[in-house]
Amino acid sequence: MKKLVLVLVAAQLAACAGRAPAPVAVTQAQDRYMDCAAINAEVQANNKKITELGGEEGKKVAQNVIVGAAGLLIPILWFGMDFQNAAGKEVAALQSRQQYLATLAEQRCGAAPPVAVQTVQMTASAPAAAPTAAGPRTFRGKGSTDAWCQSPAMVLTINGEAVEGLLSETSSGTPTSKVTGSVSNGQLALSFTGSGPDYFTGEATGTQTGGNIRIAFKTKTTKACNYTFDLKPASTASPTELLK
């Protein structure tokens, strides 16, 4: 009688041990005939199915925890644990299918389906954006140039999207050109106004990467100097002092 009871219990637990997974195929025969409406309809249906499977997966995890603990006392109960993870495998297949449908929508509709592709994983919240530095930031640096040119220097102050500064084309650091311009998305557009015909007047561009600014241009004066600057954050001294 005791053996019969154990057999019946084992059979009952096996029925609770989980179903076999039935993952959806990523590509299907009807895909070649699907229009935008059909794609969006399947995306919505898949999202609903993913939600349902997410609930099923959560219940199975809880069941395994309870049965696993009870199995320490009654080992036969371990037969009731679900090792097949059918819901998890089906969710993964549906997510792959959703990505494929998104690709079809881009090809046939010119955009991804308006219905968002749903997942059951908990996504980590994005880290808070680092606070931007308040007020103006000043950058300075000596430039490299040709052998026949004097050592140049530049100082720029960025305040919001506005840029102001000075360029020196003399080894002494005396300002020779005024700099104005703007910055957007790390790209600088600069305008130089020379203090005389021997000093640079013209346009140049630069890039801001991290804490550095890189600028390179060629002057239009008789010397035709090639300048390359790697400017780094500077102190709060005046622009004229920073050129030296």
Report what the structure shows.
The structure is a single chain. The chain has 244 residues and is of the alpha+beta class. It has two domains: 8-109; 137-242, Porin. 32% of the residues lie in helices and 25% in strands. The chain contains four helices and eight strands, in the order αααββββββββα. It has helices at 2-15, 36-70, 86-109, 239-242; strands at 137-144, 153-159, 162-168, 177-184, 187-194, 202-209, 212-218, 226-233. A hairpin with a 7-residue loop joins β5 and β6. The longest helix is centred in the N-terminal third of the chain and has 35 residues, at 36-70.
Helix content: 25-40%
- Count of helices? 4
What fraction of residues sit in β-strands? 25-35%
Overall tally of structural domains: 2
Count of extended strands: 8
Provide the CATH topology of the largest domain. Answer: Porin
What is the gyration radius calculated from CA atoms?
34 Å
Under the CATH scheme, the architecture of the largest domain is Beta Barrel
What's the oligomerization state? single chain
Uncertain runs:
4-10, 65-73, 75-81, 119-133
Query: Which class best fits the helix and strand makeup?
Result: alpha+beta
Q: Name the CATH class of the largest domain.
A: Mainly Beta
Distance between the termini: 100 Å
Largest sheet: 8 strands, antiparallel, barrel
